[in-house]
Specification:
about 55 residues, globular, Alpha-Beta Plaits, single chain, binds iron/sulfur cluster, about 20% strand, two-stranded antiparallel ribbon
Length: about 55
């Protein structure tokens, strides 16, 4: 599973890339749910490298 770190600037780019809809906007950054299948697509589009494998 991937997790989004504090570097997230809430640009929203990763949300549409997730094949299982696991990403949504949180209070101060975007968050990944337990449905994550660790495909890495979110990390590939993130401009600040916030999603990382846990
Ligand atoms: Fe979605 Fe893949 Fe990112 Fe997991 S690693 S949150 S499945 S895009
Ligand atoms: Fe945050 Fe990166 Fe997703 Fe943008 S692409 S919302 S900076 S995790």
């Amino acid at each position: 599973m991937y997790v989004i770190g504090d570097a997230c600037i809430s640009c929203g780019a990763c949300e549409a890339e997730c094949p299982v809809g696991a990403i949504s906007a949180g209070d101060d950054k975007y968050v990944i749910s337990s449905e994550c299948i660790s495909c890495g697509a979110c990390a590939n589009v993130c401009p600040v490298g916030a999603p990382q494998p846990e």
